[in-house]
Amino acid sequence: MSSPVSLIERCTSAEQPGWLRLGQALWPDDSPEQHLAEMASFCANPERYAQFIAYSSSRDPVGFVEAALRTDYVNGTASSPVAFVEGIYVIPAARRKGVAAALIDAVEHWARSRGCTELASDALLENQSSHSFHRAVGFEETGRVVYFRKALRPQKR
């Protein structure tokens, strides 16, 4: 099975063809304005953030990945900085054809160039397809977490 990826390109502008559309497909609850503002901030800090888009031979965007260097503690890692996959998405027609693996390879190359020795990511507990994907591209599960919060009542005066 041949890969539908002809080119992987680093995003250097919020105007990168396909980036907004792919981001909205992954995170549909955010408005286009929210996406564009975040994309612009990523592009303004290329030492900390890297985004890549996979294009088909006809220059159609088929997937993207966003990554960041994290210097705070990242669960399951032992080094710093750690490259972290913030999000990855491949259009349904291009899935299971090596697109996501090629995007992860691009992130790995970028991470190594920044001195990282580990790549981390996360997925919701119920997202079994994401868990399978992560294992397929070489990630190992390091733990499972349930987050809690407690609202604090205002102090009485």
Account of the protein in words:
The chain is of the alpha+beta class. The protein has a single domain, classed as Aminopeptidase (3-Layer(aba) Sandwich). It has 4 helices and 5 strands. Strands 1-2-3-4-5 form a 5-stranded mixed beta sheet. Helix 3 links the parallel strand 4 and strand 5. The longest helix has 15 residues. The chain is globular and about 65 Å long. The mean pLDDT is 93.
* Large-scale geometry: globular
**Percent of residues in helices:** 25-40%
Instruction: Kindly identify the CATH topology.
Output: Aminopeptidase
Q: What is the CATH superfamily label?
A: Gcn5-related N-acetyltransferase (GNAT)
Number of strands: 5
Rg, Å, rounded: 17 Å
C-alpha termini separation = 69 Å
Q: Biggest β-sheet: count, sense, barrel?
A: 5 strands, mixed
Structural class: alpha+beta
Beta content: 15-25%
Q: Outline the low-pLDDT stretches.
A: none
For the largest beta sheet, what order do the strands appear in spatially? Answer: 1-2-3-4-5
Quaternary structure type: single chain
Write down the overall mean pLDDT: 93
CATH architecture: 3-Layer(aba) Sandwich
Number of self-contained structural domains = 1
> What sequence of helices (H) and strands (E) makes up the elements?
EHHEEEHEH
CATH top level? Alpha Beta
Number of helical stretches of at least 4 residues? 4
